[in-house]
Each structure stands twice: as structure tokens, then as C-alpha cells.
Fold:
Amino acid sequence: MAVLIILAVLFIALIVVVPLIERSKFRMSGEQMGQLGRWILPLLVVMVIIQLVMHYAN
Structure:
């Protein structure tokens, strides 16, 4: 039952958030996306390492 409640909340949030994002005037230039993209892979690697340490520490 809890799974259905979680799915319902996520679905409702999706219905609310998508139109808000589409109406938003926030746009990023190619240069800004390139700067952010440069950080994504190192942050993912750090996240995986932290998760592995937490998993094996318990």
C-alpha cells in the first residue's frame, strides 16, 4: 500500500512541476551547460565512492 501512495505522490508532483518548468523563463546558454557538465562526472564518481564506503562500513 505504501508503494501506491509513493507513486501517487510522485505522479501528482510530476503533473505540477512539469508545467511550472515549461512556463519558466529560465534558460541556460551552451557555455553555462558546458561548465555544469564538466562537474557532473566527478560528482557522480564521488557519490559512488561514498555509497560504497557507507555500504561496507555497516
